[in-house]
């Protein structure tokens, strides 16, 4: 197994060392990245470069950190098809499956292979300049075209399936997956989309327009954002990690990714419960449906996440 950690956090280092110790005692070969090995101080591990090779033929990539660390690990795991299991040491941590308090139980379940694997939709992103492809990348959460200068608005035209949709003077445009609907797109005012829904989101950021609502489009659609020639330069961000400079006249095309990301799941927790827990949503007063044989409607049941 490959263990990836946010080594800038002491608690992540301690957690990674514990995970490596437990996995090694269970007879499981452990890999770490060369850029993290010096901070982890673990003997008997294989040290590999931080590339896709590190995850090849591994059963799992165990990630200790926040969503940013999981997105970094996704760069390593996606092409090899290796599932990732995140232990949240950050804040909200929507991509993580376990919390730091459950670390010992998490390792035990991993050793016993008591987990399921689900696929998450990605997006492929291409940048066109002067009619030629200038860059190609991908994202698990979102691709965002943003202004690179604070002084002036970015002028763009959005296109859906080869047809122009609207011109926006804005701070940017977010093109997100359902997984990314609780990330940047959420902060920009977009809807929360359940992970099993196959769709793409288009969310303008601070647009000066009467029609600048978040859009949910088909996963088969191709979304394009064109930077107008007389606008300041822009920048493309993918998952807040990969950037491409966009001169005036550049065109960004976003479509469903050819390769999904796999996430390991220990629990079959409904996404609704995850929302309640992560955002601390108030559910006091919820009574729910009566269970069969409970004696009628209206019997109160406790929410799985606990009333708040």
UniProtKB/TrEMBL annotation:
It is found in: Cytoplasm. Keywords: ATP-binding, Cytoplasm, Kinase, NAD, NADP, Nucleotide-binding, Transferase. The keyword NADP applies. Gene3D superfamilies: Probable inorganic polyphosphate/atp-NAD kinase, domain 1, Probable inorganic polyphosphate/atp-NAD kinase, domain 2. Residues 286-308 are annotated as: Disordered. It comes from the Bacteria. Belongs to the NAD kinase family. Involved in the regulation of the intracellular balance of NAD and NADP, and is a key enzyme in the biosynthesis of NADP. Catalyzes specifically the phosphorylation on 2'-hydroxyl of the adenosine moiety of NAD to yield NADP. This is NAD kinase. It comes from Thermomonospora echinospora.
